[in-house]
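INTERNAL AUDIT FORM
Audit reference: QA-55
Scope: verify that the stored structure record matches its stored sequence.
Auditor: D.O.
Record contents follow.
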Amino acid sequence: MSSAAPVVCFGEPLLRLSPPGARLTVQTDTLDLAVGGAEANVAAALASLGRPVRFVGLVPDNPLGRKARSALAAAGVDVSHLRSTPGRMGLYFLEAGAGARPSSIVYDRADSAFAKALPADIDLLSPLEGARVLHISGITPALGPGGCALACAAAGAARDAGVPICFDGNYRAQLWDSWDSDPQRILSELVAQATIFIGNHRDISLLLGTRFSGDGPDRRREAAEAAFAAFPKLEIIASTARHLVTSAHHRISARVDLRDGAHQTDEIDVTDIVDRIGTGDAFAAGVLDRWLDGGDARAMAETGLALAALKHSIAGDMCLVGRADLDAFSAGGGDVRR
């Protein structure tokens, strides 16, 4: 499936380094490498579904940056607007959880080529020509004052070009806590410009400084209505709910709220989990995929949940699922298709 109007994703591609299997870092002398990053994951997922996608950002002009570029290009993403410049690559280290032990992440992104970039270093206008939507996330402003300037410049460029914004909150406490930040103010300024917000009631509580007293769907609707009242441009709020049974067995549901209604899916069991990282990005890509076709709340929630569930079976950050696999998805089906 393709369309003349591309999705534009803006952010920093990353390299992920992790011990093989479920080992601890202290137990290994080798690290597996994967390309990821929240916005890059959304770009790769949409491109794998046949959507035209442009990625805008910056990577170092070295083998690490070229690795990230080639991985996005291999997924079908247009990387002609991904700049290369001297500097270092943003990294993160993952220890995959097992049993009762959760996964853990250590970021190594300070002073990366992207984090040190100025808005003037990246062409934000030409890739937005003819674009259908800009996807950005709260990870870019979490990098520091420079990241805030980049995120605000991207949102401003989309506003000036008349391109709707999809904003994924992606709150990362480790990044925000590493500098003298004000995430409530900064994220609120960005969400105020968005048409689509990927985030749950906890994200909305952070934005509005309000606690929601309901439970389950009632609390989510209360939060959504508060967000719609606070942010007049907002039309769609999409979120997931996850209950952990073990590190390899989760129960997940999805929800999409509109100003005049909502749809919440049934909870599905996701078992034999291979890799949880990037599942939220897969959900965002599924929501966007159906939104691009004019889908309703139910279609967006169910497609987002399907793509998120499938991502749990794929190693690495990126959800490289084709259209046929998504269309054939069923929550209970795992048999071989012949």
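Auditor finding: record pair retrieved intact. The longest helix spans residues 145-161.
Action required: none
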